[in-house]
């Protein structure tokens, strides 16, 4: 997790369940999450995307 941007790493440290799921993802999927957050042009958008990332990682799977 040391190679992650600081704000993403901090969010994952605060959300242990999201961190566990993130660590189990394929490396390509982890990179895609980071790319999605990094593409945000405004700080507010970046913050919102990190929040969405945490929600997606902890959302119930299946039906």
TrEMBL record:
Database matches in Pfam families: OmdA
What's the name of the protein?
YdeI/OmpD-associated family protein
């Amino acid at each position: 997790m040391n190679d992650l941007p600081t704000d993403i790493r901090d969010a994952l440290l605060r959300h242990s369940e999201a961190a566990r799921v993130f660590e189990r993802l394929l490396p390509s999927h982890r990179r895609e999450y980071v790319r999605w957050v990094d593409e945000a042009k405004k700080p507010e958008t970046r913050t919102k995307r990190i929040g969405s990332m945490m929600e997606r990682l902890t959302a119930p799977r299946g039906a």
